[in-house]
């Protein structure tokens, strides 16, 4: 198999666990991923839908020989202290190599509607997010991992960004994996769609639009709702997430899972309730 024929991402038997904040020593580690297996071709755009081992990218083992030109952009960046300092955007971009990518940088400045004279500590969250995207995308990346990073963008900038990413996959054979909860305007964007629930794929990355609905949507009502809603990604995501919640709530009722979300049956006041009621002078 030639280098160009290798999948962009190839993951086999990947399981990942971690401890949750505030967990006790006796608590079991949280299983974030369970035996994940999938492969993505170069030039694909995969939309990852889901409620709030060893992997390979570009033929390399990511744990031993991490490949170059892989970019991850997530929401936590804009909260970092360094991104909120009194620094001019032009200087900020140059500090991360903007001068090496002038043509692509300038193209992104126009797409993302960025003012080079902005000061990072004076701009809004949405404007700061645009700077992050320009910073991350101005190099010629091969794989782009996006995690809810478009949440602060206005609809026009978001649409122009998605068009840019689509062109990158077509013209440079780059690969995009996009996790989001905003599905408006996405129907023509992905080449593949995937659904993850409880650390597992209930649907591995599958070509979009979906073809084999009888197997992918076994519930007749879910299939009917999907078709009546114009076979949109929004309708599909709503169907999947609604079913995910139903399964989780049923597992909690049967004692298969500890209830951690929603209202709790509680007859004895909590410590915080007792404390704040003591100093409540509103009555």
UniProtKB/TrEMBL annotation:
Coiled coil: none annotated. InterPro entries: ABC_transporter-like_ATP-bd, P-loop_NTPase. Residues 9-223 form the ABC transporter domain. It comes from the Eukaryota. GO terms for molecular function: ATP binding; ATP hydrolysis activity. Keywords: ATP-binding, Hydrolase, Nucleotide-binding. Signal peptide: none annotated. This is p-loop containing nucleoside triphosphate hydrolase protein. It comes from Lentinula edodes.
């Amino acid at each position: 198999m030639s280098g160009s024929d290798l999948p962009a991402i190839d993951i086999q038997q990947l399981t990942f666990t971690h401890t949750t904040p505030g967990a006790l020593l006796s608590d079991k580690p949280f299983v974030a991923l369970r035996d994940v297996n999938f492969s993505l071709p170069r030039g694909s755009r995969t939309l990852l839908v889901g409620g709030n081992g060893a992997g390979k990218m570009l033929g390399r083992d990511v744990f031993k020989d991490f490949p170059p030109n892989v970019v991850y952009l997530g929401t936590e960046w804009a909260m970092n202290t360094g991104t909120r300092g009194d620094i001019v955007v032009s200087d900020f971009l140059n500090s991360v190599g903007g001068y090496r990518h002038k043509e692509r940088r300038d193209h992104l400045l126009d797409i993302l509607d960025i003012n080079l004279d902005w000061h990072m500590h004076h701009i809004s969250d949405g404007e700061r997010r645009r700077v992050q995207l320009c910073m991350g995308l101005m190099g010629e990346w091969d794989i782009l991992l996006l995690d809810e990073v478009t949440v602060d963008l206005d609809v026009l900038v978001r649409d122009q960004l998605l068009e840019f990413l689509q062109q990158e996959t077509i013209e440079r054979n780059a690969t995009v994996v996009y996790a989001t909860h905003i599905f408006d305007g996405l129907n023509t964007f992905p080449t593949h769609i995937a659904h993850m629930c409880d650390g597992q794929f209930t649907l591995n990355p599958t070509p979009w639009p979906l073809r084999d609905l009888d197997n992918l949507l076994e519930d007749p009502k879910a299939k009917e709702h999907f078709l009546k809603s114009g076979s949109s990604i929004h309708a599909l995501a709503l169907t999947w997430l609604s079913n995910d919640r139903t399964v989780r709530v049923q597992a909690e009722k049967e004692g298969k899972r500890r209830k951690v979300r929603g209202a709790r049956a509680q007859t004895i006041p909590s410590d915080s309730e007792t404390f704040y009621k003591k100093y409540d002078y509103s009555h």
